[in-house]
Write a structure and sequence with these properties.
By secondary structure, this protein is α+β, with helices and mostly antiparallel strands. Helix content is 56%, strand content 11%. It has 14 helices and 8 strands. The strands form 2 sheets. It has a 4-stranded antiparallel sheet. Strands 5-6-7-8 form a 4-stranded antiparallel sheet, with helices on one face. Strand 5 and strand 6 form a beta hairpin. Helix 2 runs antiparallel to helix 5, helix 2 packs antiparallel against helix 12 and helix 8 crosses helix 11. The longest helix has 39 residues. 31% of the residues are buried.
């Protein structure tokens, strides 16, 4: 039975055109997220660190944090994956969260912010700032769509493997963009597969299909309450010996370099540490050590070398999806190909919109499909929750809010100028030239 390639083309076009605005937001935000740490380095000088041979005592850093934020609570300690960046410690003062930058080599507290580029673009890419799991599943649904879009393109594009270096120039803009769309699409096949397959895995994990989410995210062990909670100060986490906890963790997992620390609120919770050994590809959470905060005995261990299949896949998904498994080099490669995939959405939009505008001018009418309304509706909802999070949760400054607003305004204006105003101008000129001929 011969396959009807027109069907695959329609499916490919439907995905890229009907959901184009949301598709671009998801792809482009993920692209920016790959180099978001580097954006922090570029725009937030307080986050920069000069690498040294030795690290400062964690206990010294904790004392400096307590002096800098008296009465605050230390919620989470995230070590930098890059040697040129500070660690980020989440300090909560009342309801206010401070992303605090501590130099891992000197132990100094260099500054703080209400939000970072890394956090902003990761949140935007993870769930579009839309709560109640709606945003998460909206983004993850595009993993399936990206995969289907790729497969259908390969099925209807004749002998695509022979056209890896074919770019048609010197003809009409439509021919050029169609050729560019195909060329970028072909070179992006490996990364498109990676993004789509890992996106589908995230969907399976979050939906807990076949208990994957439960298996891949084991619960933290509970300890007995040895001390009356009323007798424990709110600053219990500042009284702990983190240097000793790191020594214990490094002993139980040979070669472990501790990265992230989750301090306990009281003695009924263990100190949670994770990090890297010599196991390739896996994220920090592949190695987990839980330590009793009173006795410093190991309560539970998870070693990257002993992971089952589900946990191993889950712990390599992030490094592969965001490209940080090989450091700055792989992040730059992922960024470039992410831009390429984002451009596929734009060139597809341009070709489709040109056909629509040309048809509309000939009929002297303009129809607006229902999917365009759906795209803009979800986008407006996203912006509503985004500003609610920025102002209500992160308490960002007026200046930062204005900068973010200006950035989005430029993108919206550029989209209108290219895909509406300029495109109508180009099509009108082409039709006039055709009439004169």
């Amino acid at each position: 039975m011969k396959l009807d390639k027109k069907i695959f083309f329609r499916i490919h076009s439907w995905i890229g055109i009907k959901l184009s605005i949301l598709f671009f937001i998801v792809c482009f935000s993920g692209t920016l997220a790959t180099l978001s740490h580097e954006m922090d380095w570029l725009f937030i000088p307080e986050m920069r660190a000069n690498p040294a041979d030795t690290l400062a005592s964690r206990n010294l850093i904790v004392r400096n944090l307590q002096n800098e934020f008296p009465g605050a609570r230390m919620q989470y300690w995230m070590a930098s994956e890059e040697s040129y960046l500070c660690d980020i410690v989440y300090m909560v003062n009342g309801e206010q969260l401070h992303y605090t930058f501590v130099n891992p080599y000197t132990g100094n507290v260099q500054g703080s912010a209400h939000i970072t580029f890394q956090r902003f673009f990761r949140d935007l890419h993870y769930y579009l700032f839309i709560p109640f799991q709606v945003g998460h599943f909206t983004v993850l649904f595009f993993g399936f769509l990206l995969f289907v879009s790729l497969i259908t393109a390969l099925l209807f594009y004749k002998k695509w493997y022979r056209k890896l270096f074919e770019l048609k120039t010197g003809k009409s803009p439509l021919v050029f963009f169609r050729s560019l769309h195909r060329l970028v699409g072909l070179w992006s096949v490996p990364l498109t597969l990676i993004f789509s397959i890992t996106g589908i895995w995230y969907f399976i994990e979050r939906a807990n299909i076949a208990d994957v989410g439960t298996i891949a995210n084991p619960a933290s062990p509970k300890l007995e309450q040895r001390v009356d909670a009323d007798q424990e100060n709110d600053g219990f986490e500042f009284s702990l010996n983190y240097d000793r906890a790191i020594q214990v963790a490094s002993a139980v997992i040979p070669g472990l370099v501790v990265k992230d620390i989750l301090p306990p609120k009281d003695s009924s919770q263990p100190i949670y540490l994770n990090g890297q050994d010599d196991t390739p590809l896996v994220r920090n959470r592949a190695n987990r050590v839980y330590i009793d905060p009173l006795t410093y005995e190991v309560v539970k261990v998870q070693k990257a070398k002993e992971l089952n299949a589900v946990n191993w896949i889950n712990d390599i998904a992030d490094p592969i999806h965001f490209g940080y498994w090989g450091g700055l080099v792989t992040k730059v490669i992922w960024f470039v190909f992410g831009l390429g995939i984002s451009s596929l959405v734009l060139t597809g939009m341009w070709m489709s919109q040109k056909r629509k505008v040309k048809s509309a001018i000939k009929r002297n009418a303009q129809r607006m499909g229902v999917w365009k309304y759906i795209n803009w509706l979800v986008t407006v909802v996203m912006f509503g929750f985004l500003y609610y999070a920025l102002l209500g949760r992160y308490h960002v400054s007026t200046t930062a809010t204005l900068v973010i607003t200006l950035g989005f305004a430029v993108f919206i204006w550029a989209g209108w100028y290219i895909f509406d105003y300029k495109l109508k101008e180009v099509v009108t000129r082409e039709l006039e030239d055709k009439i004169l001929k």
